[in-house]
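In practice, a research group might receive sequence data for several interacting partners and want a quick structural hypothesis before committing to experiments. The following worked case mirrors that situation: the sequences arrive first, and a predicted assembly follows.
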Amino acid sequence: MKKTSRIPNILVSNDDGIDAPGIYAVVNELKKFGNVTVVAPDEQRSAVGHAITMNYPLRVKKFYKNNKFFGYAVEGTPADSVKIAVRTVLKEKPDILISGINHGSNTAINIIYSGTVSAATEGTILGIPSIAVSLTTYDKPDFSFAAMFSHKLAEMVLQKGLPKDTLLNVNVPPLKEKDIRGVRITRQGKSRWDDTFEMRRDPNNKEYYWLTGKLEVLDISEETDLISIFNKYVSITPIHFDLTNYKAISELKSWKLEKYFKK
Amino acid sequence: MKKTSRIPNILVSNDDGIDAPGIYAVVNELKKFGNVTVVAPDEQRSAVGHAITMNYPLRVKKFYKNNKFFGYAVEGTPADSVKIAVRTVLKEKPDILISGINHGSNTAINIIYSGTVSAATEGTILGIPSIAVSLTTYDKPDFSFAAMFSHKLAEMVLQKGLPKDTLLNVNVPPLKEKDIRGVRITRQGKSRWDDTFEMRRDPNNKEYYWLTGKLEVLDISEETDLISIFNKYVSITPIHFDLTNYKAISELKSWKLEKYFKK
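A structural hypothesis for the assembly, expressed as tokens:
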């Protein structure tokens, strides 16, 4: 439990890039109660997973919106942006990190590809209570409710803290407040992409492929993020980065690999 | 339980790139018992996390080593390589996937940045028993024991199958077989990078940053991947991609967010 009476320092990042409408919407809302610093990729870096840049130098530039300083644009991934924000841009560790608002959902299997979630994961690794927020539509977005919700949830997290090494992955349905049925604490759903690679030929007659595909939902439990959204609830999933499948450990121990590989 | 009497079809990928010595070593070993197809990134894609390419077209080229066809080089990430292998290069789903052998460890927090693990994760998502193998040294590597171990473990997995939605993350110490003390089934360790960004100036006097840093080990239990390696054991960690922190669900439910956000 953690109480903050002073004005909180809020770090905001995303994966849609610093010029995306979703980050602008949430920053305007968060400024109502906090000191906001924006450090985000200079351009869209969706589906980058938890990539970081080690073999190339990173550059950071000041970014202006409507002729006013808005934040720092990083030539790198969402995880790079959070690392460099905490290690060089900011003088002290922020009280909270908000990643988003992503234009498009980050649920079920897509969490592992998500740059939005990756920024919040990096924040958590660095010891900052972190929230990833996504608006679950690919149509023209209205971020107003999701931004307001992010503000309220951020205040709550600042007051209560988060479970150790855990971030919140929030998905908000693209509805007006009056049409949203409530909030659900969920688990990550199960889904699978039925990938298709569309083969085309370039002007030199060389083959290339575009990745397309459709999502197959493998678990229609109401407890999952996907189905909560479908049922018009805001979904909040606590996620962590211990990938160990503890249930599998005893099965693997029964293989007696020790013996099998004995010299 | 699954028995394979015919010659198994083996898909091999990595993140060090198709021309790396680690993939060459494991392919030579796996060819002793299986039909091997190599589909791997055309160049090094380390620390790419679980990135996939959606906004650019992918190209696949045949790659020759010592004037002999070796495999397919993909202008993309490890996850891209596995997806395109299964969806377009191969006529049928392979019996097993081996990712590696990576030059450098993939333990503790580094698992979430790892392209080697990402290739095996993508294989698992696609329903293929998958193993990521890393040799835990940054010095000049000798892949011979790790390659032999991969061969034996692959045969075992083909015989026994793997727990559902679970891959094996294998780390092999850079030692001769006689100096390795055995095999341990482990959990993912805890560690944190103490990142530093080294600021430099380019010839135009503009700032840029290089990411460096040192790893802090936060858990020295013998049950972890990191400490098993340190103690000269091969480490095998079963990992999955359900990131839900189930223990945190009840705590978050006690926040009564439903009530807090009630209209």
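Before designing any experiment, note the following. Chain A is about 25% helix and 30% strand. The mean pLDDT of chain A is 92.
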